[in-house]
Specification:
By secondary structure, this protein is an alpha/beta fold. It has 10 helices and 7 strands. The strands form 2 sheets. Strands 4-6-7-5 form a 4-stranded mixed beta sheet. The chain has a 3-stranded parallel beta sheet with strand order 1-3-2, sandwiched between helices. Bound molecules: adenosine-5'-diphosphate and the ligand N[C@@H](CCC(=O)OP(=O)(O)O)C(=O)O. Ligand VHF binds next to helix 2, strand 3 and helix 6. The site of adenosine-5'-diphosphate (ADP) has 22 residues, from helix 8.
Length: 247
């Protein structure tokens, strides 16, 4: 666990909140923290085992976030969601109302999937849903102006730069077509579940919603200040129409 990065993230997000910007943090890491706490060499394959580890890790993870944000007198709240918030209108409305109430109190919600109930995003039948998609769904729920996805890479390239040295960074993407999809491949680390493919999936949702997403490197969370300031950082996914309006 990179405590320094978590501490910087708490500093940056608190500063945004102090400026009146409404912030929601979607964070994975429950499995990773749980695996570390139990000194496991790798992620177990049995789903109930994964769920247990995620539950163990999640309580530790939220404890660390709570402590780091408290350093800056910033309150946070734990929000664990399941897919039914998008299926049942009543659940959707309840979540919207809860987010609204947290925003009014200037509390930063920290969202993860409720892995005890929902197993879609773990090593199950599909790898199409993970925290990248969850962040896009949360953006829809709160009608966010911008989704920032922080990864271990500087942005979206024309191929996986770890494998293809000719891959170049794309600074803007306007639509997710076959060519863009062909650039995106799987995760770079054992703990990553989706890699670039699920980030592009999230971007597709965002663009469909006529919203914006920036994919950037999360190594130094202060990069968020540059993104908010409109500097060219990472890859900006934006519907073409938004760019035309700007011109
Ligand atoms: N076109 C691409 N551009 C950038 N990274 C890519 C691309 N295709 C695959 N990748 C891989 O995706 C990784 C980022 O996803 P990762 O952070 O591992 O997944 P997750 O966020 O789900 O844990 C990069 O480090 C890289 O190895
Ligand atoms: N909810 C689980 C899995 C989250 C997940 O999909 O992780 P990631 O591959 O980083 O998007 C966790 O917190 O570990």
């Amino acid at each position: 666990m990179n405590l320094h990065t978590i501490s910087r993230l708490a500093f940056v997000l608190t500063d945004l909140c102090n400026r009146g910007i409404e912030v929601v943090l979607v964070s994975s890491g429950a499995m990773g923290v749980g695996i570390g706490m139990l000194h496991l060499a790798q992620r177990p394959t049995a789903i109930p085992e994964q769920q247990a580890i995620s539950a163990i890790g999640q309580s530790k993870l939220i404890g660390i976030y709570t402590r780091e944000f408290a350093e800056y007198q910033q309150l946070v709240a734990q929000v664990l969601l399941t897919r039914d918030v998008m299926i049942y209108p009543e659940s959707h409305e309840n979540v919207v109302n809860a987010f609204d109430a947290m925003m009014r109190r200037h509390v930063i919600p920290i969202v993860n999937e409720n892995d005890t109930v929902s197993v879609d995003e773990l090593d199950h039948k599909t790898n199409f849903s993970d925290n990248d998609e969850l962040s896009a769904i949360v953006s829809e729920i709160i009608d966010a102006d911008l989704l920032i996805v922080l990864s271990d890479i500087d942005g979206f390239y024309t191929g996986n730069p770890h494998k293809d040295e000719t891959a170049v960074l794309l600074s803007e993407v306007h639509q997710i077509d076959k060519e863009i999809l062909s650039y995106a491949s799987g995760p770079g680390t054992a703990l990553g579940t989706g890699g670039m493919a699920t980030k592009i999936n999230a971007a597709k949702r965002i663009l469909k919603d006529h919203k914006k997403m920036v994919l950037a490197n999360g190594k130094n969370p202060e990069i968020i200040f540059d993104i908010i300031a409109g500097k060219e950082v990472g890859t900006l996914f934006t519907p073409e129409s938004a760019v035309k309006t700007k011109e």
